[in-house]
Amino acid sequence: MALKMVKGSIDRMFDKNLQDLVRGIRNHKEDEAKYISQCIDEIKQELKQDNIAVKANAVCKLTYLQMLGYDISWAAFNIIEVMSASKFTFKRIGYLAASQSFHEGTDVIMLTTNQIRKDLSSPSQYDTGVALTGLSCFVTPDLARDLANDIMTLMSHTKPYIRKKAVLIMYKVFLKYPESLRPAFPRLKEKLEDPDPGVQSAAVNVICELARRNPKNYLSLAPLFFKLMTSSTNNWVLIKIIKLFGALTPLEPRLGKKLIEPLTNLIHRPGVFAVLISLSSGMPNHSASIQLCVQKLRILIEDSDQNLKYLGLLAMSKILKTHPKSVQSHKDLILQCLDDKDESIRLRALDLLYGMVSKKNLMEIVKKLMTHVDKAEGTTYRDELLTKIIDICSQSNYQYITNFEWYISILVELTRLEGTRHGHLIAAQMLDVAIRVKAIRKFAVSQMSSLLDSAHLLASSTQRNGICEVLYAAAWICGEFSEHLQEPHHTLEAMLRPKVTTLPGHIQAVYVQNVVKLYASILQQKEQAGEAEGAQAVTQLMVDRLPQFVQSADLEVQERASCILQLVKHIQKLQAKDVPVAEEVSALFAGELNPVAPKAQKKVPVPEGLDLDAWINEPLSDSESEDERPRAVFHEEEQRRPKHRPSEADEEELARRREARKQEQANNPFYIKSSPSPQKRYQDTPGVEHIPVVQIDLSVPLKVPGLPMSDQYVKLEEERRHQQKLEKDKRRKKRKEKEKKGKRRHGSLPTESDEDIAPAQQVDIVTEEMPENALPSDEDDKDPNDPYRALDIDLDKPLADSEKLPIQKHRNAETSKSPEKEDVPVAEKKSKKPKKKEKKHKEKGRDKEKKKEKEKKAADLDFWLSTTPPPAPAPAPAPVPSTEEVGVNAVTASKDECEDTKTEAQGEEDDAEGQEQDKKSPKPRKKKHKKEKEERTKGKKKSKKQPPGSEEAAGEAAQEPVQNGAPEEEPLPPESSYSLLAENSYIKMTCDVRGSLQEDSQVTVAIVLENRSSSVLKGMELSVLDSLNARMARPQGSSVHDGVPVPFQLPPGVSNEAQFVFTIQSIVMAQKLKGTLSFIAKNDEGATQEKLDFRLHFSCSSYLITTPCYSDAFAKLLESGDLSMSSVKVDGIRMSFQNLLAKICFHHHFSVVERVDSCASMYSRSIQGHHVCLLVKKGENSVSVDGKCSDSTLLSNLLEEMKATLAKC
Amino acid sequence: MIKAILIFNNHGKPRLSKFYQPNSEDTQQQIIRGTFYLVSKRDENVCNFLEGRLLIGGSNNKLIYKHYAIELDILDLIHVFVETLDKCFKNVCELDLIFHVDKVHNILAEMVMGGMLLETNMNEIVTQIDTENKLEKSEAESLQPRRQRLQ
Predict the structure, then answer these.
(1) Taking every annotated instance into account, which residue ranges of this chain make up the domain AP complex mu/sigma subunit (chain B) (predicted)?
(2) How many helices (H) and strands (E) does chain A have?
(3) pLDDT for position A674
(4) Is B24 inside a domain boundary?
């Protein structure tokens, strides 16, 4: 053995290494293949040796040969041997070879599982790394399942080098073993916040790839990605994130709004970020940003750098999909790009054109494209042009075509292209238009007959798949609509030319079939005209020419031709006896043809009791070769054929059969033709007359000598439009004149929009037929071959116990003792029974937690996205204006005063007011009802000392957020948020200041005015002296000194509320505004002008808005560190903590985030978006409030106000 | 995802081929040839993007075209790759690639894994490569008696 080893290493010195191999190959240029086969023989010898170094060297050379195209799969086992070498050097060679040559079909791959697992857990990070790299290339579903858990563990490896590789490879694992996605996702999510940027970027990478499928799974990560986007400097990461947001914004419109700012910043960055952003279509639906984007793109497209040009165009096409208007204005630029020398750029520009056409510019654009078709050198580009022209014209059901004659001419012109692969495309278009646009048939037939007549198409028939395909369409159209032919005889002769036999079989077959149709119609004509000789001459022509088709090598042609030949011969006999035959021959082709939707056949429901898989006749023992019929160009053809197949039976028989068939079809509900639909009213009556064919506008002459056809139409169309416009203008002028007389003028400018252009022909585009109840759109879109389909997994569902990654286990020799054991995931195999139970229990708990977490998360996202408080979980924060006031303030009744106050009446005054109110209150508030009920129930429980009313307003604010907190020990005396503003003998004013998040920097001041006198108060006007910081919103046109009228009068004893809006610039300080209320008091003695001065106090608390906040978001806010801190302490407090919190909630608009014993965290938000966080602690007889806020001045002022509130407690 | 990374010279000889999707050797060769054909007939001052035709994509020594990702990052990636090669081989030339294709593979493995971007920081890549090479060297030395060194 030892000797062998020594011998091995000696041999090795003479072995070729990779460099020698390469050198050798270079030196044997003339007989490379021979040299390499020699080398492979040597390698095979080397692989037989025991020395691992020799083997590794051999494998290394094989890897090189693999690159040159040599199959090395035979060495798979040796590669595995080298992979399992202990030395990194060899291991690496082995893994490289494996990654280059292994694939799912490699059978020995399953032998690698344990080796890879060993390497993954190797102490050397490079062993692990090389194993991960290799595995990423050849991972199979089995490997993924077996190793998923090991890789999961590596995601938390201490070395970032391993972590990033492990994170990245998880994507491959997910693809091969989708079940692993859900259990692994939480950890993957963690990695987004990994301290190492490499790992972070790997995680972003994986999630972006995952988000191709089911992006809504990743919506909850939006805040995290948002943070990454605004903080990351790594362009690669940015690109990925922008792409991800591109997938997310359609799901969550609010996200788009949030992205406007950072994306706009990115657009302004030098480089091509604009491209990326628009490419990812992550641009929110924000017209200014889109506009900016398009402008930037235009600059790129105009750049001389071809790469930028290309990218700009690519990006434009993305924007075009969502915002066609903003791109359309750059048509000039796009058309210019069509002239670019670079094909890639021209193709991009073509793509863009597709979305830019309108009725107005279609002809112009197509004309331009046609000139390019003529100029184009390469066939690929020319073919691309051709398909684009057809795409552009036919898009959305020929929406943009105003003149179908023009379109047919374009198609005919396109047939001049030689060597194109798209002859069948043109043919399909011709057929489609001729069948569906009934008004155009006459014109189409005339064009098609000249096509049949021209020689150039026949000449090119040698080229496979060439342009001769259009003859298929031409022949069919001429035959089917032969009644429109000018010179049917001429066309018939053209179709029977000997050269036709050089055409491909399927085209000849159509020729044969349609020759008969033509023949039938000529026969009819001749017989009607009484030209018996003429009729016989035509029959003779047929009899003479048909044999050339009978000899065809193509079965289809042969069969059809011989049938028809016999038929014609029979007719000839009859004609000889002077029997009129035309009627019966043309009856062969009676009936109208309707276009059928491509998917219609599939949509026909299988009738009950029909088993499509059952044999109708037992199959023959010898399977016959299937007839290889050429692909039908047109779907309808399939349906058509059976109707046309002529039979050799005599005419009578034919007629009988036809009748029977008609009957059958009429009775068969699944016969497509007879499906009734609202568009096909005319189907009830047979024949052609019912088709709503509208006369072709004869102002368009059919032929204009000179110019090539389509150009004429462009000119004609221009004229026509001009005419139309003139007429319209005339009408408009008339209207204007009338309007002038009527002294009213509309400022509409005469613009020519798309809708103004009326099509030249009133074309009736027949809709395609579909079986009843079948929808045209269907679920076929899902591609079963989509490799990412497996990743369509809902990640939001909580993990079930069974969802665990399989973990490798040693097979226990003894069978498991308890039956339970099998169910238990192996992770817990060591745990004893009780533990197991515990765990299960825990898991259940965890599940619940997860559910909660999930809900929370959704709410978190809402919170993150919203600029307004989320609707559902939020405690109704609106401070309900309470009607009763405590202490000093006498009771006021606002207009939403309710009857209930009566039952709990405090005094006579109140009573009177209530009644008064009932009679006169014009608009009862909505909330009234609910409030009433609550009040009633609560009020009954409560001692009479406590007046009802504001109680639940305070309670609501406090209770809701504390959900799980201790029950209220003692009820809090009710309070009102309304405070006294001013009063005199006539009137009393109380007010409440409310902020609103919708209106940035605006507050609403609600003032309740109560008439205390016996006079009627009217003409009330409120004037306020604006300060620099705060100003009252006044009606338009009034100056700062004008007062704002109060929109009501007050009869004696009545009160009502008026609201005034103030705009505040800075909200960090409290402030006071001086104001005056002037009014006229009128009683029996007369009227007096009175006034009342007041000082309106805007406290900082009034700028806050009760906003709910969840503890994790709260914690993040505190962690973020950009909040300044301040604190106050108030002594001598005896109130319960619960009530204390309620007071803070009520007066200062806070909500409780969390409460633990005598300690609570609270949160609120200002109308300008400042976050305010509080930590309230209750000591013995004292309360300390620590606050954090994004603005220190605001915070200290708030705390002062709070101190004042608390001091009263 | 990246489907393949190819390097070949002006005559269409492959110098590195790394496919991230399973293909038979024949298909691989076909792709390499087709790619070269498409790329070689393009002018110098046209853009670096070629839309895939019959093949999965076209590319030349400097760039890779692919369908799904944003091409721009790939252009950048190629730049980083070439620079890294430059650092590791000290002025990289075709001969380096010819004779050290295994090393080129190792370098690539640190940048792209299974068709996905792994690392784009050049210094990080070079550090890892250097450490791996040192490891290899120490293993090679260990074939010789090591006792003396240990003492």
Answers:
(1) 1-135
(2) 47, 15
(3) 38
(4) yes
Residues 6+ apart with CB under 8 A from A14: none
In this prediction, residues B129-140 reach a mean pLDDT of 85
pLDDT digits (tens, 9 = 90+) for A967-981: 444 555 556 777 888
Question: Which residues from A are below 8 Å from B48, CB to CB?
Answer: 306-307, 310
Beta-carbon count within 10 A of A140 CB? 20
Rounded Cα gap, residues B51 and B47, in angstroms? 11
**What ipTM was reported for this prediction?**
0.78
Q: Which residue has the tokens 């709260």?
A: A1114
Residue at B151 is within a domain? no
* Probe site for chain A from B31, B49, B79, B131 (most A CB atoms < 10 A): B49
A998 SS3 class:
coil
Supply the pLDDT for residue A746. 45
| Residue B65 maps to a domain | yes
* Per-residue confidence band for B46, with pLDDT thresholds at 50, 70 and 90: low
Please answer yes or no on whether B139 and A88 come within 8 Å at the CB atom: yes
Cα A1019 from chain centre: 57
Identity of the residue in B43, B72, B99 whose CB atom sits nearest the CB atom of A276: B72
What pLDDT, on a 0 to 100 scale, did the predictor assign at position B57? Answer: 41
Question: Is A310 close to B116, i.e. CB distance below 8 A?
Answer: no
Give, rounded to a whole angstrom, the gap between the first and last alpha carbons of chain B. 51
Look at residue A569 in the predicted model and tell me its pLDDT.
Answer: 92
Q: Confirm whether B38 is domain-assigned.
A: yes
Are A125 and A162 spatial neighbours (Cβ–Cβ below 8 Å)?
yes
Comparing alpha-carbon positions, the chain A residue that sits nearest to B74 is: A236
Which residues in chain A are closer than 8 Å to B126, comparing Cβ atoms? Answer: none
Of A69, A168, A344, the CB nearest to B49: A344
Q: Which of A911, A885, A886 is nearest to A900 (CA)?
A: A911
pTM of the model: 0.53
Residue of A nearest to B3 (CA): A137
SS (H, E, C) A347-389: HHHHHHHHHHCCCCCHHHHHHHHHHHHHHCCCHHHHHHHHHHH
Confidence grade of residue B30 (pLDDT, cut at 50, 70, 90): confident
Q: For residue B131, which residues of chain A lie inside 8 Å, CB to CB? A: 126
Surface-to-core class of residue A941, CB atoms within 10 Å of its CB (0-12 exposed, 13-18 middle, 19+ buried): exposed
Instruction: Specify the 3-state DSSP secondary structure of A1159.
Output: strand
Interface A:B, Cβ pairs < 8 A: 141
Is residue A62 a contact partner of residue A43, using CB atoms and an 8 Å limit? yes
The three-point CA angle A206-A207-A210 to 5° equals: 90
Q: For residue range A665-722, list pLDDT tens digits in order.
A: 555 544 444 334 444 343 443 444 444 444 444 343 334 334 456 666 767 777 776 7
How far B77 CA sits from the closest chain A CA (Å)?
10
Cβ-nearest to A168 among B22, B45, B116: B116
Cα separation, A722 vs A752, whole angstroms = 10
A22 in helix, strand or coil? helix
- Domain containing residue B11: CATH number: 3.30.450.60
Residues of chain A with pLDDT under 50: 1, 8, 623-649, 669-707, 742-755, 776-781, 812-840, 843, 845, 868-928, 930-969
Q: Take residue A44 and report the two structure tokens written for it.
A: 């095979």
What is the arithmetic mean of pLDDT over B115-128? 85
Phi, psi of A1159 (to 5 degrees): -145, 135
Across the interface, whether the CB atoms of B70 and A96 are under 8 A apart is answered: no
- Residue A735 pLDDT: 61
Amino acid type, A307: N
**For chain B, how many structural domains are there in total?**
1
Q: Which domain holds residue B133?
A: 4-143
Which of A1131, A1204, A1176 minimizes the C-alpha distance to A962? A1176
In the block, tokens 């270079």 appear at A26
Q: What is the pLDDT of residue A80?
A: 92
